[in-house]
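Possible regression after last week's pipeline update?

I re-ran a chain I had predicted before the update to compare outputs. Posting the input and the new output here so someone can diff against the archived version. Not blocking, just want to make sure nothing changed silently.
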Amino acid sequence: MDDSIDAHNRCFQRACFAEDEMPVDLLGLRKSFAGNAVFWILVFCSAGLVYVVDKWVNVIYINIALKRSDLADAHCVQVQQNGKHLSLEKVGSVNVTSGLVASGFGLTALNSQEAVEASPPVDQALRLPVFTFKHHRFVYHPQLDMFVSVGLWKDIDWYQGKATGALGLTQEQHAQRLELFGKCLIDIREKSYMRLLLEEALNPFYVFQLASIAIWCAEEYYYYSAVIFAISLLSIAATLISTKRTMRKIREMSAYACSVTVVRDGKRTVVDSSDLVPGDVFELSDSQFKTVPCEALLLEGDCIVNESMLTGESVPESKIAITAVNSRVLQDINMSAHTFSSEISRHMLFAGTHLVRVRGGRGTYCSSNSTSECAAGRGAATHATAMVLRTGFNTTKGMLVRSILFPKPTSFKFYRDAFRFIGVLALVALVGFIINTVNLHRLGVSASRIVQRAFDLITVAIPPALPACMSIGVAFAASRLGKKGIFTISPSRINVASKVAAVCFDKTGTLTEDGLDLLGICVLSKESEGELVELAPNVEDISERSDHPLSVLHALATCHSLNLVDNLPVGDPLETKMLEFSKWTIDEESDELEAASSNRKNAGVKPILVARPPSQMTLSSDDAITENNVIGLPVVSRSSHKPVLVLRVFEFSSGLRRSSVVTLASDDPSSICAYVKGAPESIKDICRPETIPANFQSVLDGYTKSGRRVIALAGKQLADVGQSSPNSAVIQLARTSVESQLCFLGFLVFENKIKPETAAVLKELRDAKIRMMMCTGDNALTAVSVARECHLVSTGTWVFVPHFVSSGSNRSDSVFSSEKDSGIFKTNVLGLAMPRVCWKDALGSNIELDPSTLEPFATNPLDAVAVQSAADLARSGCYCVAVTGDVFTHLFKQSSEHSDICKRILMRGAVYARMSPEQKADLIERLQEIGYITCFCGDGANDCTALKTADVGISLSEAEASVAAPFTSHTKDIRCVVELLKEGRCSIATSFGCFKFMALYSMIQFTSCCLLYVYNVNLSDGQYLFIDLFTILPIAVCMDRSKPYTRLVPRRPSASLTSKKVLTSLLGNVVLVIAFQVAIFFIVEAQPWYLKPRPDDPSDPDSVPNKCDLSTALFLFSLFQYLFAGIVFNIGPPYRQSAFRNYTYLAAVALLVAFDLWMLLAPVNGFYSLFSIEHTKVSWRFWILGMAVVNFVACYVGERFIFPRIAMPLAKTLRLVRWGLLSTYSRLRGRDTDVLYSPFKSAADIEHGGNLYQVEDNWETAGLWSRLGYRRGRKEYKILLEKMAGGSSWH
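New output (post-update):
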């Protein structure tokens, strides 16, 4: 977290959280006695209305009852973001010493010694303000004069590489740190049902419902009021139960405590894990200790842990203790970062991870350098100990839980427009309120009745059931997804999925199977020096040179970081396949290991494991140990079928893309060898050039282009190790010395099979014109080959891969074959000109892409075929690019200089290879910046960041880490993507249809009420009840039950309720239903039998009965209007199945039509009395039926054929009027106001800073009417597609 504070404004501070890059402002506030009194008086006088409104806007109490204060003296801290209120947090206090705060935060916050030197004496007691925001705990730092997160605290000894001594913390140190950091628990306090009920009841939706119920009860509409009240109670109860269940589930997942043995004051004490604090040293050896309760650094021993809870990867990870060699680990730990580098993670035990195996050891690391202290604290026995680094919500698990509790807010146009539209309905209600108030006053109606009628209009114009009906469709979609094994923690994202335009897939485990099949090994030929032979499918087929000191078999059997659990090797599946292929076995307990460990010369290293060839027998104990033995191993005759000991393991580094081991053959103690495996481009760079076979690149390209994964093997003999200092020769080996000047040994070739469902799903997405990309950490050519095989890149599409070309040189190096050069190109430390990127055909043709425009051209102008092919390719646009992580970083970190090419790469990119987790998330953000609604589908640790960044993230992992993604699929293939997009489109179409239906329903009822209010008449309680409960609610619910369409269509549904088509449709239907109701009003008044409504008591204008000819006609006619509104707006294909497939809806409509016809044409006295209906002539009833049929035909024809066609001309006309009025207003005011995208302006006037994507290409030549069709605010990627060759078919 970065903090800054204005020196002249001590009440304000800015903070930024690194984990989510969320900048917030902290404002200090103090309570004012007078202000508090005024606020609560206002609450009392307003009967609580001021309190309710304050809960919505969060400004009344702050502005009245609080005043600004210095942060040091604040009673409360207001947290804001971009000027908007986020939270108001109470400030508490902690009692700590100044030394704990100054030494722990000074260096972290200032990165200097100044804060420590300016600190008060260490033993001075301080009472410091503290507050918590979103489980971030902040403490006030008196020297820095600002709040700092306790997660930044770092012991001053850690800066010097010293861990807590063997005697542990003192009791006083522990008490101080416990006060500062709090309990070592990820404790989520469950809100009581009463508090949840209060928060839910104060929701504006329920407050409006409560006000509506009060109005209805005042008008004696008791039945409907009771029903709505019951529905509201059930809705609140369901929400409370669901919220409580979810919070309890998260709490059970996150909260964990156990007994742990901790070292304090030199004594081992069993305490509860919640009592742990940073700096505590605790034991891991207890067999009952299975789950790590905090984030800790391993000091002694080694562990195998299952980190699937955090990463989603089921492969156990090996953890080793820090040693004197890697003691800089503590110094390099950045407490402000939310993740650790791989070099640090290999020593870290993360909170919530499960211990698979723990082994004790006597570590070489001791912070105090005191032999007496080590002996007092540890003794002679072996232990597995760790030191606490972070606790509670400061741990990685705590950050994961926090991301679940406070997910990234989504801004979806549909939800914004829905609130705006409700505001429009409120405005309509206000207009009706005013008009009818004037009319009722003219009739002499009492003030109380006028107020009742006016408020009744508001509840009619804004139906209280609108939000509930709109959310039902999302609930049904979530239920259907659950039945298909797709679960969500954010149902609102289902509607967002409807607008997904780009989908990024991880490769391994997502598009392809999880496991790898080892096809064979390709080694150097014995006969042909410097050439690689054909692939050997079996280990018996490997032909090795007898005079060579290195052995490919030894490399296969030892170059891994596998561990034994229950006598079975566990670890990376690739390494497991290697060991299986070699047919060797590994052992962690043997005579060889014991002999090596107990030898007096082996004080600095203990062999990790022994690899045995097939049918290898244990060596006899009679074997002698000679003085020439470097580490005291049994001497046996030299043979390739003797055991090999692994002395050191340098685990896989994602930065270096390789791993290595140091081994010793048991038959030759003087032969210590190093074996390295990794990405071919990485291994080639560290091998001696003369050992690289001539056909290295051609063989590599051959395998990668066919979709195979290739791992290179290399090694060397460490001839001089142990000669000068046998005690520490191996342990002091640096990784750089081991992984240099190697001898190339061969290629391991793996096959990663594509999942059976992958190709069909990708074809369905392509047919829907949804852009697809692969985002993987694998080799570029391998990724391209897989993309072709699964048809992510369509047949006939050219793929170009990037190469760096150094300035002033004709030499080019592929970024996927030269790690060294790419590093130089990126840093440019010598001040040389930055390199450029060139794009070459993956298949090796003579066509490249222009680095500035990505336009194809022939490298040889004399090659007529290539020139013609390049021209055809440029014209068709049937090509894409494969981007590597190095190129991505190189170009996008200088995006200001390469903004145009970056956008072109984003539009042309189909494969993104060698991408780190951060680069994957960065890619998603870049796509979002140009307007794409993105979806990311992946599994495992490498995808967690991208899953959270994408608008729609789908995890294929069931591990707890997957809860950070909005969606989780229990089906391990990408079919879930199509199912989610179908349900999203169905849900948004349902929400649109339901919204339009509810809006039209409110306008129908609003019109009926306004017409009846002319004579101070209203619908009866029975009529309201039948309309709202037995007509509207069944239709709305049954409409929402429609299932998604069987396939995805190219056109995505609109997400804007204010789009021209939606508004034209809705307004057109509103005009029609109002016109027909007004027609009924005048026609019924013209009937000879019509009786004008009059008061029962001439002296009381309020005594007009609701039962009359006018209310009967409007009620019976409006019943059919509600029905055909549900029919007209029940959208079917292409996003939902036809209404004829929704049998529940058909049954509901059929029953209502039959009942309404029966009530209209065959009157029953009981029903007429219940609904306050007058008996009328049969001919008049058929008049009503005929008018209803004509109204239905008009609305249906208008919705299907007329309104969509007049939407654009109407929008153009309105734009012309708007721009004309704005221009006239500007001239009258004497100002030349810039009207953006005005059709009267030239393209040059509209462009901003030369941005070529702001206007259309044909703007200048287009006429006024055509210009009016260009709308502002178009997503940038759509404009880029139109400008891109072949963009109309590119997806």
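Follow-up from reviewer: compared with the archived run. The chain has a mean pLDDT of 82. Marking as no regression found.
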